[in-house]
């Protein structure tokens, strides 16, 4: 199996970087936060819940307020410091999704909000999630829909393709959007010991003050977007940003602002 070492390094560096981690919390998460009510409403009755890849603790806090006993876990000390600032009463643990420091069958539910696609060894992470879940426990995850349905990813990927330097490539990684595809999600999750019970699309978006803000969110609020843009020669970087802004102007106009739709996919699965 591929080890995705370059990708692992990019993700580890990205989530421990001041600009990217703060950029995610202050810009990117406006869209991720729209999934929170859907995640919370799909976790069953009160019980012990692991919020894996918890980042800034936005989902951890919502689950705690809904009455669950929640532990938030993330491998980035920087993201956890945002979580502890935002939700001082929360319980947070520094841990890698591929090697969880919890006992077997400890949790009634595991939630992973926009996290699994950042993990290099996803079969290992899924086997860890399956291990810490009680039998018939619930696994709920979200991920971003791909450019087949996502207007934001159509705009971003097409602009990089049209204006990027072809020598700038991403390290080999698992397909970033695979869990948003029903067939792929079902196949991967059933192979990992889960039965998919439900998959639905969620309407997430950003309201942008300026058309230029979309490229800014990708460059300074996401490790992969940041890598892809910051590795570009200056002229290519500027051309990509101009193309993104132009497409925002023509496709996402909403009164005196711009609404950029970035649909997400929610999967609810049960451990066999
Ligand atoms: C896109 S953010 C999601 C944060 C939050 N769950 C949300 O919904 O906004 C992804 C998070 O996954 C974490 N992460 C990435 N790879 C990880 C790994 N191997 N183990 C644990 N956490 C990881 C990052 O540090 C980051 O906080």
Mind explaining what this structure looks like?
This protein is an alpha/beta fold. It has a single domain, classed as Vaccinia Virus protein VP39 (Rossmann fold), CATH 3.40.50. It contains eleven helices and ten strands. The chain has helices at residues 5-15, 18-32, 36-42, 58-65, 77-86, 122-132, 151-163, 182-191, 213-221, 223-230, 234-251; strands at 48-52, 69-74, 91-94, 107-113, 133-144, 194-202, 205-208, 253-254, 257-261, 264-271. The strands form two sheets. A seven-stranded mixed beta sheet has the order 3-2-1-4-5-10-6, with helices on both faces. It has a three-stranded antiparallel beta sheet with strand order 7-9-8. Strand 8 and strand 9 form a beta hairpin. Helix 1 (5-15) crosses helix 10 (223-230) and helix 2 (18-32) crosses helix 9 (213-221). The longest helix has 18 residues, at 234-251. The two termini are 25 Å apart. The mean pLDDT is 97. The site of S-adenosylmethionine has 22 residues, from helix 1, helix 2 and helix 4.
Which features would summarize this protein structure in a list?
272 residues; alpha/beta; Rossmann fold; seven-stranded mixed beta sheet; binds S-adenosylmethionine
């Amino acid at each position: 199996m591929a080890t995705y070492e370059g990708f692992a390094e990019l993700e580890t560096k990205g989530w421990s970087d001041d600009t990217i981690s703060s950029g995610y919390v202050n810009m990117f998460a406006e869209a991720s936060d729209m999934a929170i009510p859907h995640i919370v409403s799909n976790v069953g009755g009160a019980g012990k819940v692991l919020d894996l890849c918890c980042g800034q603790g936005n989902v951890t806090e919502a689950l705690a307020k809904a009455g669950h006993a929640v532990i938030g876990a993330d491998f980035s000390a920087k993201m956890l410091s945002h979580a502890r600032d935002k939700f001082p009463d929360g319980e947070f643990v520094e841990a890698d999704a591929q090697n969880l420091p919890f006992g077997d069958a400890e949790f009634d539910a595991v939630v992973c909000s926009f996290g699994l696609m950042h993990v290099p060894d996803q079969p290992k992470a899924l086997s860890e999630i399956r291990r810490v879940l009680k039998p018939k426990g619930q696994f709920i995850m979200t991920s971003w829909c791909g450019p087949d349905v996502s207007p934001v990813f159509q705009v971003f990927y097409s602009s990089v393709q049209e204006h990027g330097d072809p020598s700038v490539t991403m390290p080999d990684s698992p397909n970033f959007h695979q869990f948003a595809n029903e067939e792929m999600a079902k196949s991967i999750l059933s192979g990992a010991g889960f039965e998919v019970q439900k998959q639905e699309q969620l309407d997430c978006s950003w309201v942008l003050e300026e058309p230029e803000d979309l490229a800014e969110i990708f460059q300074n609020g996401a490790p992969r977007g940041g890598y892809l843009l910051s590795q570009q020669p200056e002229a290519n970087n500027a051309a990509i940003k101009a193309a993104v802004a132009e497409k925002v102007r023509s496709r996402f106009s909403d009164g005196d602002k711009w609404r950029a739709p970035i649909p997400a996919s929610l999967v609810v699965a049960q451990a066999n």
